[in-house]
Amino acid sequence: MVDLDVEQASDANLVVAVGRWYEPALAEVYRRHGGAVHALARRILRSDPPAEEVTQEVFLDLWRHPEKFDAQRGTLRSFLLARTHGKSVDVVRSEESRRRREERMTRETATAAYDIDREVWDMAVAEQVKDALGALPDELRQPIELAYFGGRTYREVAVLLDEPEGTVKSRIRSGLGRLRVHLAERGVEPAGAGL
Amino acid sequence: MSTQPTPLSHTEIEEFLGAYALDAVDRETADIIEAHLDGCVRCAAEVSQHHEVAGLLANSGGVPPAELWEGIAGRLGGTSEESWDRLAARLDVPADRPSDGAVPGERVPQPHRAVASGGDVVPIGTARRRSRLVAAGAGLVAAAAAVIALVLGLQVHHLNGQVNALQATQNLSTAERAAIAAPNTTRVVMSAPGATGQGSTPATIVLTAAGTGFVINDAGDGLAPLPSDRTYQLWGVVGSKVISLGLLGSRPGIVPFSVAGSHGVSAFAITDEVAGGVVASANQPVAEGKVQV
Q: Which of residues 112-141 of A touch B (CB under 8 A)?
């Protein structure tokens, strides 16, 4: 395993090498995906110190439990980003953050919150993804953005958008499904197990 | 696991999958959904797809900060002892979801838990399998005498920290090498039944004082690859009983297993079985070795 050419290795092979405590493999995983992980954590947390901590935890978790990644379930990047999102949201929802957010939510309108998310959104998202997202009706796009980048629960999104909870829940699901179709139409084929 | 009753129907859970994939449900709901995902391939696949789409939305990373890597590397630990601790801890963590499976085609350590005491059979797979095996355990007592008779006395080395040729095997991780080299680690050189003297070494078993062991078949000319519908199965003789210590797969490399409890394994045997393993083997071992204490 020490002969593994990490730069040429597939993500799955890197994870196997990580499972054997081969540190250069983890370094390569970080080189490939650390930027995306850190960027997502910063978007959600909007603050560097906790975003850096989340980023470190994501890679340390992979080091400790590489077996949690299942290559048949999707790409390593989506796995790491899902972990990043979960950890970031946990931080956002910690008691102190919750208090601050609730105070802010009482002042914010749904539109204002949407604009904030839109601002960071526009900076770096790939053209196809923007196109696909733009093709979504607002009522499907907004819940996804508020939940994903805002770290909000569907119930919070329902309050922000003044919609029934069940409606928001369904729209997040159908919006993600539509997004997938739109991305495929633009040549972006998300990986993952087929239905 | 998936045995927990869920207050939500499949259809109701389906409606949650998008929000769940975006971490937009509360913890209690997430627990219910995760219990459902353990047993529902279709819903698990949908969540994976949502994660992929969400990952694309976030897919905007540039160059990762180098100083962050320094922080990560500084927390990985460095010494072999620490590596071994991590490995031991990992082997003690039960797989909590099917998605925690191995990367296809590669060996990833999976804990095989032995009975602590009083049981007849070691679970070698899922909880479902465990119950079936325990129910059928009585037959093993009869099989025990046969297997014991087959197990020949073989050399055992207490390494006392010495590094032997196995450690030169490049496929061994630092942690595995540390385990082999650790004091009180017992090495059992398996041999094919009927083999005499030097030469044939189908596999080596390394058993730590803590009860974690490795079947090492790195030599390439040891346990030959089997057809995909076959598997090697590891057995241990504990007292008067023969217990399954786990399936080694059709192409074993280095496979960890665990022998919990105070009852020592006095001998090991490896058989060639149908994929999925058997409760009690009627086959002649392809390798066997006795532990000397």
A: 123-126, 129, 133
Q: Which of B252, B185, B188, B181 is nearest to B217 (CA)?
A: B252
pLDDT of residue A85: 94
State the Cα angle at B15 between B10 and B19, rounded to 5°: 125
Say whether pLDDT at B5 is over 90: no
Predicted confidence (pLDDT) per residue in B91-116, tens digit: 433 333 223 333 333 333 333 333 33
Q: Looking at beta carbons, which residues of chain A come within 8 Å of B93?
A: 65
For testing the chain A interface, which of B42, B50, B63, B96 should be mutated: the one with the most A CBs within 10 Å?
B50
Per-residue burial over B103-123, b if 16 or more Cβ lie within 10 Å, else e, is beeebbbbbbbbbeeebbbbb
- Give the pLDDT score at A144: 93
Domain-wise residue ranges, chain B: 10-57, 127-290
User: Could you read off the pLDDT of B200-242 as tens digits, one per residue?
Assistant: 567 888 877 666 777 877 655 578 888 888 888 888 887 777 7
Low-confidence stretches of chain A (pLDDT < 70) are 1-3, 95-126, 187-195
CB-CB neighbors (< 8 A) of A1 in chain B = 170-171, 173
Distance from CA of B26 to the nearest CA of A (A): 7
β-pair partners for B189:
B204
Which of B15, B53, B59 has its CB closest to that of A170?
B15
CA distances from A91 to A42, A95, A99, A151, B93 (A): 12, 9, 12, 10, 25
Asked if residue B245 lies in contact with residue B236, where contact means CB atoms within 8 angstroms, the answer is: yes
User: pTM of the prediction?
Assistant: 0.51
Ordered by where they begin, the domains of chain A are: 1-92 (1.10.1740.10), 96-187 (1.10.10.10)
